[in-house]
């Protein structure tokens, strides 16, 4: 009783029926993909190791409008976060000081100035798109239109 050279030549004297089953321990699909993209995985591991433990957030690819909107929303959220941090620190200073040097109107004014400055910086930072990024965006739109 053998199948493709696997199994016993004869079940006689083996205390088994000689029935041959497929081995579930060897997963051929897993074995085929095990070595796939080894260099890519090594490069990613090396990059993460070089970054250390800080800021392991993946960069968002800005090739379609959904990701561009996500980046814009994230940038504006970051601006509002910095404004709220300033507001919290100024309110803490106002509460801690006995003399009222800061008024809520002053806090609002400083927060508005910071918000405008950060938005202006954001506009100047995002106004220019490098040639490589423009070409990449043109290539993806051309490929999807074809």
From TrEMBL:
Its main location: nucleus. Residues 12-26, 126-146 have a biased composition (Polar residues). Keywords: mRNA processing, mRNA splicing, Nucleus, Spliceosome. Residues 27-47, 106-119 have a biased composition (Basic and acidic residues). GO terms for biological process: mRNA processing; RNA splicing. Residues 72-123 form the CWF21 domain. InterPro entries: CWC21, mRNA_splic_Cwf21_dom. Residues 1-56, 90-146 are annotated as: Disordered. GO terms for cellular component: spliceosomal complex. It is found in: Nucleus. CDD domains: cwf21_CWC21-like (cd21372). It comes from the Eukaryota. Belongs to the CWC21 family. This is Pre-mRNA-splicing factor CWC21. It comes from Maudiozyma barnettii.
């Amino acid at each position: 009783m053998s199948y493709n050279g696997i199994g016993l030549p004869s079940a006689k004297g083996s205390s088994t029926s000689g029935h041959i089953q497929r081995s579930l321990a060897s997963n051929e699909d897993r074995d085929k993909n095990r070595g796939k993209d080894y260099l890519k995985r090594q490069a990613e591991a090396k990059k993460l190791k070089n970054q250390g433990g800080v800021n392991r957030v993946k960069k968002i690819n800005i090739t379609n409008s959904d990701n561009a909107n996500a980046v814009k929303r994230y940038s504006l959220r970051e601006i509002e976060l910095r404004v709220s941090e300033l507001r919290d620190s100024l309110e803490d200073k106002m509460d801690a000081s006995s003399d009222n040097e800061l008024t809520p109107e002053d806090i609002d004014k400083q927060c508005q100035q910071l918000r405008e400055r950060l938005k202006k910086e954001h506009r100047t930072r995002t106004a220019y798109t490098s040639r490589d990024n423009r070409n990449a965006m043109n290539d993806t739109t051309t490929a999807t239109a074809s």
